[in-house]
Amino acid sequence: MSADESAHDYAAANKKIFDKKAAENTAIPAELSVLARAVTGALLLTYPTLFDRTKTELLDFACGAGLVALELAPHVRSVLGVDISEGVVERFNERAAELGAAHARAVAARLDTGDGAPEACATLEGATFDVVLCSFSYHHVASIAATTRTLARFLRPGGALLVLDTLRRSDTAPVEEIPEEFRPAVAHVGGFTEAQMREAFEAAGLVGFEFGEAMTKTIMGREQTLFIAKGVSPQL
Fold first, then answer.
1. Domain of 179?
2. Residue 37 CA: distances (Å) to CA of 25, 71, 204, 233
3. Rounded to an integer, what distance in angstroms lies between the CA atom of residue 125 and that of residue 160?
4. For the chain, what is the domain count?
5. What pTM, to 2 d.p., does this model score?
C-alpha cells in the first residue's frame, strides 16, 4: 500500500457517497431487497441459536438503510444500527417505522476510527450486544483488523461477531469493475480470504472462529461467492 493509499480516509469517502445516495431518495433496487432476504435466510439457517426474539440484542455495523437488519428484526428482541452516514440512518429509521419495527432504530456514528477505538456516542457508551453483525461492508473499511477490534468491544461475554462479505478468488475482479462513483469508498477490491478473516478475528481476541460459504449470487453484474465468518467473545 502506498503512502497516498494509507492516508486516504475511506470512512469520510463512504460518508460523502452514501449521504449523497440517500439524498437522492431513490427506491431500493429490487435486486438488493432479494439479496438481503437471501442473506437473512442464510444467517438464520447457519446460526439459528444466535437469534432469539425474546432476548437477542443485535448491533448492525454499517447498517445502511437496514436491508438486512430489518429483515432480522422479527427474529430478535432489539436492533441498533450504526452508520457513518446520517442520510442512510434517517432512511433506516423511516423504514423501521413503516414496518412497525418499534424495537429497531439506527444512530449515526463513526466506529472505524482507524485505531480500533470507537468515537464517543452517547447511545453506544457502555453498550454491549449478543450479536454484532456487519454485512457487505468490511470491504469499505480501511483496516479490517482495527474494525474487528472495535466491534469485539461491543460483544457481551459469549456474544458473536458475524461478518458477511465477498470471498476472494484467484480471478478476483479488477477495480475497473467497481462502479466509478464507489471506487473512493472501497478499500479492499475482490473480497477476503479465510486466512485474512481468521487473522483479524483472532487478533481481536475472539475465539471459536468459523468460516463458510453462504451463497453465490450475481451482484452488480458479476457472480460473487459470499461467506459468513463468526467469532465469539470469550466467556468470563
1. 3-232
2. 22, 7, 29, 27
3. 19
4. 1
5. 0.88
